[in-house]
Design goal:
By secondary structure, the protein is of the alpha/beta class. It contains five helices and six strands.
């Protein structure tokens, strides 16, 4: 079982200036599992000093849509996608897993910072183990992933001091007794 397997985790990012504000979008289809995922995500975000809002949607397919709609507001620096898809007797499982994952990936490629915490499991026991915020804490992991992407985005898109020509709007007018007005 994956519960006993260890893996390396990057240190949690630290934000020196503006603390990020995230949106957690969750599908509470399996309410107890969703609540554990949400508890883990909230704790991970709060531990960094960041803030969050929570939005609920009916199912995993609606999670990427809600994130896309929220991104239009420019209110959030990152997003945490949470939910659980448990294999059933039909191929609907494959459709929901693939389409929700693809939707999140496409949004990420558009530049949104998203941590994917939508569990895709064979049975309820696997979901419970992964959602447990005192155990595997996949909700917290998704929040940390979003925070890492926000930190990378901040690093790669830092405002520069500028080189070359200044826009005309930044020119300073200096008054001189002999020449009249000059620009510097």
């Amino acid at each position: 079982m994956a519960q006993a397997e260890s893996h390396y985790c990057l240190p949690t990012p630290v934000f020196d200036s503006e603390t990020p504000h995230l949106l957690i979008v969750i599908s509470p289809y399996y309410k107890d599992i969703a609540d554990n995922l949400l508890d883990g995500a909230k704790a991970a975000i709060s531990a960094t000093g960041a803030t969050y809002d929570v939005a609920e949607v009916p199912g995993a397919l609606e999670v990427p849509i809600a994130i896309r709609l929220a991104s239009n507001s420019n209110k959030y620096q990152g997003y945490v996608a949470l939910g659980c898809i448990i294999r059933g007797e039909t191929t609907h499982y494959d459709t929901v897993c693939n389409d929700s994952s693809r939707g999140l990936s496409l949004l990420g490629l558009e530049g949104l910072c998203i941590g994917n915490g939508i569990l895709t499991v064979e049975n309820r026991t696997q979901a419970e183990v992964r959602a447990d915020y005192t155990g595997q804490n996949k909700g917290g992991g998704a929040a940390i992933a979003a925070l890492h992407l926000i930190a990378l985005n901040n690093r790669f898109n830092k405002p520069t001091k500028g080189i070359g020509f200044k826009p005309a709007s930044e020119n300073i007018i200096i008054a001189s007794e002999t020449d009249g007005n000059k620009t510097a």
